[in-house]
Write a structure and sequence with these properties.
IolE/XylAMocC-like; carbohydrate metabolism; alpha/beta; two-stranded antiparallel ribbon; Sugar phosphate isomerase/epimerase family protein; single chain; 11 helices; TIM Barrel; Xyl_isomerase-like_sf; isomerase; 8-stranded parallel beta barrel
Length: about 260
């Protein structure tokens, strides 16, 4: 299923020069785009919301007919327990996270201990936990860790764009993780020469115009055949003013949705 994520609304949520888009506003925009899935991913206000506010937001999502997924950073048991409770409130069946959190950088051994403590509750609840490919941890090490559990509720959130900062190739990341992928983050990316020819900027591109070989990902991972959701995100640089940036963000979202639908 195609979904939109919080990073597809990055500048709209930021509210630079305009009223910030609320979480429920993003829900409505997702529904208006003809999309049935929204991933609340790294959305800081969620951690500050009261139980009543969470319940209200979940009610809006249900009224709109949206399926919700969640995303956070870190795998310490307290954080994963908190997000399992949030998953229950939103009827979410997947939580995306990453090994490193805001205040934690576990060793591989510590990561295994934490996951063995937290994962049984996810398994009992039928909620999947998807750990994202990131530059902080070699893809091969992440694959080894996830595979060691052999749990259908523990998988990988595949984002090949992230690993370039580790000098890994996106295609290699796709191939290494393919069998364990439980969620896909969809965005294109490219390098551009900086002014004066002194280096490059690595950032987002409108889907289908950058370096991401998405047909290779589709062929290798087979997300549509396996029921793996594809969540739209962007790495959109600031475009000089709020109006232009937000308009471009919306255009990129529509372009990505159209691209994904054209490849189905």
């Amino acid at each position: 299923m195609i979904g939109l994520g919080t990073y597809a609304f990055f500048w709209q949520h930021a509210g630079r020069g305009a009223e910030p888009l609320s979480l429920t506003g993003a829900f409505t925009a997702t529904r208006d785009a003809g999309v049935d899935l929204f991933q609340i991913c790294d959305y800081a206000p969620l951690d500050a919301m009261s139980d009543a506010e969470v319940a209200d937001a979940a009610a809006v999502a249900r009224d709109l007919g949206l399926t919700i997924q969640l995303g956070t950073k870190g795998i310490d048991p307290a954080r994963l327990e908190r997000y399992l409770r949030l998953a229950e409130a939103f009827d979410a069946r997947l939580v995306r996270s990453m090994l490193y959190g805001p205040d934690s950088r576990p060793t591989p051994a510590q990561a295994e201990v934490w996951l063995r403590e937290a994962l049984p509750a996810y398994e009992a609840a039928g909620v999947g936990l998807a750990l994202e490919t990131y530059e902080q941890v070699a893809t091969a090490d992440l694959v080894k860790l996830v595979a060691s559990f052999g749990s259908p509720q523990l998988g990988i959130c595949l984002d090949p764009a992230n690993v370039v900062a580790r000098l890994e190739l996106p295609r290699d990341c796709v191939g290494l993780t393919a069998d364990l992928v439980a969620n896909v983050h969809v965005k294109d990316f490219a390098f551009d020469r900086q002014a004066g020819w002194v280096g490059f900027t690595y950032s987002g591109a409108s889907m289908g115009t950058g370096l991401h070989d998405y047909p290779h990902l589709l062929e290798t991972v087979r997300p549509r055949e396996r029921g793996i959701d594809e969540i739209v995100e962007h790495w959109l640089p600031w475009q000089g003013d709020a109006e232009t940036t937000i308009r471009t963000e919306r255009e990129w979202t529509r372009a990505t949705i159209d691209y994904l639908r054209s490849t189905s």
